[in-house]
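Board notes, transcribed. Complex of a protein with L-captopril.
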Amino acid sequence: MIPKILLVLSIVWLRTQTVVSQISDLRYTETEDTNDNLSNAIQFLRDFDREAAEMCNRVANSEWKFAINGTEFNQRRMREQQNLASKFECLSWRRAVSFDSSTIVDSSIRRQLGRIVQPGRCGLGEDKYGELSHVISLMKDNYNNAKICPFSGGQSTMIGSDSYRSSNYVATYSTYCDLKLEPELVRIMESSRVEPELRYYWMAWREKTGPPVKNTFMRYLDLANQAAERHGFNDAGDQMRSLYDDSEFFFSVNDLWMRIQPLYKQLVTFVRKGLVRHYGEHVVRRDGPLPAHILGNMWAQNWHSILNLIQSGPSEMPDVTGEMIRQGYTPLKMFQTAEEFFTSIGLPPMAPEFWRNSVFQKANEMYGQCTASAWDFCNKVDFRIKQCTQVTLEDFVNTHHEMTHVQYYMQYAGQPFLYREGPNPAYHEALANAISLCVGGPVHLQKLGLLSTPVSVLNGNTMINIEYLLSIALDKLPFMAYSLALEKWRWYVFEKGPVGMNARWWELRLRYQGIIPPTGRGFEHFDAGAKYHVISDQDYIKYFVATVLQFQIYSELCLASHHVGPLHTCDFYRSREAGRILSDVMQQGAALSSSQLLKLLTRGRTSQLSVEPLLDFFRPLEAWLELQNRDEPIIGWSSRMEDFALFQPLVDRYGRSSAVQPMISVLTLLMLLLYSDIQFIR
Ligand code: X8Z
Ligand code: ZN
């Protein structure tokens, strides 16, 4: 333990030194003695605190206006504020790197300076910084403007062989080519059970989003890496990982996943059985990986939409949404109920500004801007939620999720600006989802009178519990495998470059998620580019960490509330003890490191991420899945040559091998060796 801490500290110290020496040309010319250095740093941080909060407030106001009313004028105003904020960020960065951190003994001052110096890309210099912002916005524009032609059953067989790009197709359907990702494509992928239709939309979305930005993405890789090097990192992946305060982070996430994998393999096996039943063995091999297009989501990142498909009998879940409607729930009542949940555990109510300024229902001008979000206006009083709320169980849970973000903003509002966030990017989502686990569970819904099932049934090992656990598992487990594959891919291309990046994408999807593309994929494709977070330069491993962490937080709050019984039946509603821990953790913001905060959360028992609470939560489901899967040929998936041939760069896109057959065989053999659970190979 101690050597590891020393290693982390020395790496952090060395990195700071590298940054400081690399930008020595930017240093202020006067040599400051130690005292001046310290007092100037304190003064700088004091000014920064005020100016950064004001800047943040102006940006949030302009972004809010645009989100509520997406006029060109509001968009221009927003861009102006965002540009000013970037300029301010780089000025502050230049000033912060001019201080000699090694002579500053006060750890909080050093930590705050580090939070300005380490992240970001200001080290690139003005021109390249501008170019990087430009290439990212080009990729976002392409993604946001992508529109797809509707599927026509008659075209489907041709589509499978890519001829949908034929002039005939374009000529016939161009006038109708207006399907957007949201809401149309998302809904079709969730609800359609017609394989050719799903295959068509899966391919069409990738055709529109990937290849057009492939070259731009390569320039992005190059610039992001240059920036990372200027900030003292090996590459941009190294810089992204540094946010997690764990020098072994690359391997830590693998270790966590290895513990979850047996449960995940049981889930995959059960899901495959249902898919074979519906689509037949010509679509899904009985021992093979799962085709990515029939899992109820454009990216196969969560599979909850196919719950009804994989269940062999009728659902036992009572209709909570129907009950909410019967009881006259409205979006406002859902927010009031969420507020009452927080006050019941001793957290404060929402401020008048919240009720005055938030948007709970979709307005006409908001078309296309319906993703729920929680906003911090950086002035310690103005916090809001924007949500196109529908009276459904799903949105009931979402409302609590978003309000947890607001509670977090309120709780850490007393910290300096630089600490007004979680200690790493996963905390916000982890806390919000820990509350979601509590309020979406059958026991809480029963307490609110939305479920009439007797307590004895809810506490037993009954189908209603299994169905609840299965729906949560379909949501969380494939998502963990997906986020790990996505981020490992991104770290790989940052480190090794873009050669063979599409094949690498599918190698990792197969390794972690056990899925394959529905059709051949070649170097001309760029399938990772079909995901917004990739082309818009957003961290994704936070979702993996947040999933582990949310069960840890949930379990601790349950412990504090003196819960007895299976973990998934815990509801800490009205527990002041749980509320106290929650607010203790929230109030710290980023003033403590993640490991210090875990120690606070667990009252000293551990400072590490742990998957035990997650495994504990799903234990009844795991036993049930083992029983359901007892006659299956394999638990998990076995990969054959034909699976790798779908994305092997040396095999043509239809899976046919060419003159290079012997080489392919050797490569495939190597691939198979690599995929046998040797997870330490990067
Ligand atoms: O991007 C989001 C949210 C904002 S944090 C809309 N999510 C990820 C995604 O869509 O891929 C939520 C789940 C994961
Ligand atoms: Zn959230």
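The chain has 30 helices and four strands. The two ends are 24 Å apart (CA to CA).
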